């Protein structure tokens, strides 16, 4: 493996770093269960990656786990900051804890949920960085308005955001 092509070719270095402080407010609430902080969006990184902090409250019932999905254009990684997050790897659900890292290449079936009964937080990295904020914001609007989507409407929403339904094969 070699380094990718150069992205910066000027002779002099640039003063171009950005900082988001730890006390910055949360960018988005998705219902009462999830809060999302946009640490680095695909737009701010010129499409190189997107990095988000996802704070999760526990789901009300362990039997309400989300379905699986996959992406065609990007890989997704999860890094658990605190609490316990259940991650689905396409074969089984695994309870993860702080310091655990989970990588999903394009096409890999995955899902996540908090069934621990306690709050949890994780970092989610998408590479390359697509406009995931639009997807998150649509989910927040659906939760805030109580709108109910048909299966076909969900499929269309997911497809607009490079997300494709995949069956969960285990409990």
List the defining traits of the structure above.
single chain; 171 residues; alpha+beta; six-stranded antiparallel β-sheet; three-stranded antiparallel β-sheet; 2 helices; 11 strands; 14% helix; globular
Can you put this structure into words, describing what you see?
The protein is an alpha+beta fold and 171 residues long. It has two helices and eleven strands; from the N terminus they run ββββββββββααβ. The strands form three sheets. The chain has a six-stranded antiparallel sheet, covered by helices on one side. A three-stranded antiparallel sheet has the order 7-6-9, with no helix packed on it. A two-stranded antiparallel ribbon has the order 4-11. The mean pLDDT is 93.
Short description:
The chain has 171 residues and is an alpha+beta fold.
Spatial order of the strands forming the largest sheet: 1-2-3-10-5-8
Elements, N to C (H/E): EEEEEEEEEEHHE
Can you count the beta strands? Answer: 11
Which percent range describes the beta-strand content? 25-35%
- Work out the oligomeric state of the chains in this entry: single chain
Structural class estimated from helices and strands: alpha+beta
Major beta-sheet overview:
6 strands, antiparallel
Q: State the share of residues found in helices, binned by percent.
A: 10-25%
Overall pLDDT level: 93
Q: Give the termini distance in whole angstroms.
A: 38 Å
Low-confidence stretches: none
The shape, in one word, is globular
Our Rg estimate from Cα atoms comes to: 17 Å
Number of helices: 2
């Amino acid at each position: 493996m070699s380094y990718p092509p150069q992205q910066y070719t000027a002779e002099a270095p640039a003063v171009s770093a950005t900082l988001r402080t730890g006390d910055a407010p949360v960018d988005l609430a998705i219902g009462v269960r999830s809060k999302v902080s946009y640490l680095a969006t695909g737009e701010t990184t010129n499409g190189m990656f997107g990095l988000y902090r996802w704070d999760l409250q526990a789901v009300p019932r362990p039997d309400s786990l989300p379905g699986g999905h996959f992406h065609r254009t990007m890989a997704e990684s999860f890094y658990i900051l605190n609490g316990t997050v259940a991650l689905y790897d396409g074969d089984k659900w695994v309870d993860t804890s702080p310091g655990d890292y989970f990588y999903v290449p394009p096409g890999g079936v995955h899902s996540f949920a908090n069934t621990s009964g306690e709050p949890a937080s994780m970092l989610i990295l998408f590479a390359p960085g697509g406009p995931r904020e639009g997807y998150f914001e649509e989910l927040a609007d659906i939760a805030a308005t109580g709108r109910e989507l048909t299966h076909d409407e969900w499929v269309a929403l997911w497809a607009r955001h490079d997300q494709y339904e995949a069956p969960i094969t285990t409990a």
